[in-house]
Design brief:
Elements: H1 2-15, H2 34-44, H3 47-60, E1 64-66, H4 79-83, H5 94-97, H6 113-128, H7 140-150, H8 157-164, H9 214-225, H10 229-239, H11 252-259, H12 263-273, H13 286-296, H14 302-309, H15 311-315, H16 319-326, H17 330-341, E2 363-367, E3 373-377, E4 385-387, H18 389-398, H19 404-440, H20 442-447, H21 457-464, H22 468-475, E5 479-482, E6 485-488, E7 496-497, E8 507-508, H23 509-521, H24 531-540, H25 547-556, H26 562-577
Parallel strand pairs: 2-5
Antiparallel strand pairs: 1-4, 2-3, 5-6, 7-8
Helix pairs in contact: 2-19, 9-10, 10-12, 11-12, 18-19, 19-21, 21-22, 24-25
Length: 578
């Protein structure tokens, strides 16, 4: 058996010999090129990120330049530069100092003063007789006077200042020439540069006070409450342990061990720092923060202290238990609650260093004269870049073909053309998606959020014949200004909730949440709606919704339960009756 197997193996090896051969195979595959990946990234960028990206491309690509209205010195760009004038013979000095005919003293209407000085002054000397003679009777006085007149390029204050070594700008400020900027391309960044104050004598931004942080504010007050130098070092260490809301995050025992001071001294310094402004800083909990503010208002009596210690019962609206613990009636308890509401739970929030960013809409929707909607892209968020074909042609003529410079320039031209095409395609895609959203949500724009229709990405993608991922990228971080306000494009895509009626239209989840909020706002103290009551009301209105879904929507909107709302509204009704 073994010999037979070896014979078969040898025969198979001899008939199936290994050999090298060439095959031609043609296949198709989708490859993500770097330019395609960047096009996808451009589609989901905000206008701020897009401007940053384009600014980097303009800096790297000599053929790219901002439109005259977009660049930092757009007002100074000449029309010849944008229309393709040959830059090889252009005197760049005339772009900032005025027209070429006004440089070097060659002003229209002014002759050549070097020649006019000989003849004109000679005529004057003949008419004036002996006035040209000096004090000693010679012609030295006239010769001295004619020297600086003959050599002067003009009679302007600048020429006199250069030849007489005198600054006439202080004596005759109205005749002083406009100061020339040393670096005109940096005028938008350095306003103190000569020539940068063209619109006025000063800029209001130069007088804006610097931002004071919470730690700086506390450090300035520390010497008034901590006299000892050693304690001030401890106070500075404690100041570094607070968060942006003003709460103290450190532990007294750990801090005492680190800095080598007794815990009693650290606690004493912390207690002194708790008296600083804003009231409530250096608190270790919400209850302590409220207690510090009440103590500074001289309102921390035993009843109020008990209320602050039981904030959990206050959150549950358990007014019956709070009345027993504080030993007060309903009227006093409601007055105490009113004082609690006036306190600041985050005393350091007013010193937040993060600037508030204004949202600029990408799409603007206005009512049209024919009853429809006028949809347009916001020109302020559309970057405009130009490809300088003239510069490319000029350099190409003066450089040999196939060289390194020519290859670099060709690559720059290809990248510049790709960027302009990508920006144009991005604007068209955003316009298509926005138009379809407005068509789908026409009832919302007319009647409000109650008529917001359920919408998903697939519906829009099928309508405009694009992929869902493309629609998702377009709607990310894009905003639309409508007559109803400013909304993110994602706002119009909501989950569909089934109808309680057979054949009825589905409802948008956002519209249902709005209806729940309105029902709770309009409820009476003696008829507070439970989650089951809301389910029945919605079902009568044609919305099929489960009780747990109503509770989920209510908690997402930070609306307390029916038990807590009943306690609060009954207490408020009793106070109003008194």
């Amino acid at each position: 058996m073994t010999a037979r197997s070896e014979g078969i193996t040898g025969s198979f090896a001899s008939t199936m010999g290994l050999s090298a051969s060439l095959f031609l195979r043609q296949t198709q595959s989708l490859v993500m090129t770097p330019q395609l990946m960047q096009s996808i990234q451009l589609l989901q960028m905000t206008h701020f990120e897009l401007n940053q990206f384009i600014a980097n491309e303009v800096e790297k690509n000599p053929l790219l330049e901002f439109s005259p209205s977009d660049g930092p010195n757009g007002a100074e760009m000449s029309g010849a530069e944008m229309s393709g004038v040959d830059f090889s013979g252009l005197d760049l000095g005339g772009l900032h100092t005025g027209s070429p005919e006004m440089r070097d003293g060659e002003h229209p209407g002014h002759g050549d003063f070097s020649g006019a000085g000989d003849h004109g002054m000679a005529g004057r000397s003949e008419d004036r007789g002996g006035l040209e003679a000096g004090a000693d009777g010679s012609e030295a006085g006239f010769e001295a006077g004619s020297d600086w007149y003959d050599g002067a390029p003009s009679l302007s204050p600048t020429g006199l200042s250069e030849h007489l070594d005198t600054d006439y700008e202080n004596v005759f400020p109205d005749d002083a020439p406009a100061p020339r900027a040393d670096a005109p391309e940096l005028l938008s960044q350095w306003k103190s540069m000569p020539g940068g104050d063209s619109d006025g004598d000063y800029d209001l931004n130069d007088f804006v006070a610097g931002h004071v942080t919470l730690r700086d504010h506390l450090t300035q007050q520390t010497p008034f409450v901590v006299a000892d130098r050693t304690d001030r070092l401890v106070a500075q260490y404690l100041i570094d342990q607070i968060d942006d809301a003003g709460y103290f995050l450190g532990d007294i025992a750990d801090i005492a061990d680190k800095i080598g001071r007794p815990q009693a001294d650290v606690a004493r310094v912390l207690e002194a720092l708790q008296t600083l402004d804003p009231p409530g800083v250096f608190a270790r909990s919400l209850g302590e923060c409220l207690a510090i503010q009440l103590r500074q208002k001289d309102r921390l009596d035993p009843a109020m202290a008990s209320l602050v210690r039981h904030l959990d019962l206050l959150a549950k609206r358990d007014f019956a238990s709070l009345r027993k613990i504080c030993g007060v009636d309903d009227e006093d308890l409601l007055d105490m609650l009113g004082e609690i509401r006036q306190l600041n739970p985050k005393p350091g929030a007013s010193f937040d260093a993060s600037p508030s960013e204004a949202i600029s809409p990408d799409i603007v929707v206005r009512p049209a004269s024919d009853g429809g909607w006028q949809i347009e892209l916001n020109p302020d968020t559309l970057p405009r870049v130009l490809v300088n074909q003239t510069y490319y042609q000029t350099v190409s003529r003066n450089r040999p073909r196939g060289g390194e410079d020519q290859n670099f320039l060709s690559e720059c031209l290809q990248n510049a053309n790709w960027l302009t095409r990508s920006l144009d395609q991005r604007a068209k895609t955003i316009m298509k998606v926005a138009t379809e959203i407005v068509r789908q949500q026409d009832a919302f724009l007319i009647h409000g959020v109650d008529h917001l229709r359920p919408l998903n990405l697939r519906t829009v993608a099928e309508a405009i014949k694009m992929h869902e991922s493309t629609v998702s990228r377009v709607t990310s971080n894009k905003y639309m200004m409508t007559p109803r306000g400013l909304f993110e494009l994602k706002y119009f895509f909501t989950v569909s909730i089934g109808s309680a009626e057979d054949g009825g239209d589905n409802h948008s989840a956002e519209a249902v949440r709005h209806r729940i909020r309105q029902l709770i706002i309009q409820e009476l103290p003696e008829a507070v709606l439970s989650d089951d009551d809301i389910v029945l009301i919605l079902k009568r209105g044609g919305v099929e919704l489960a009780r747990r879904t109503v509770a989920k929507y209510r908690e997402a909107m930070n609306i307390p339960s029916s038990v807590q709302r009943r306690r609060e509204k009954r207490a408020m009704a009793k106070l109003a009756a008194v």
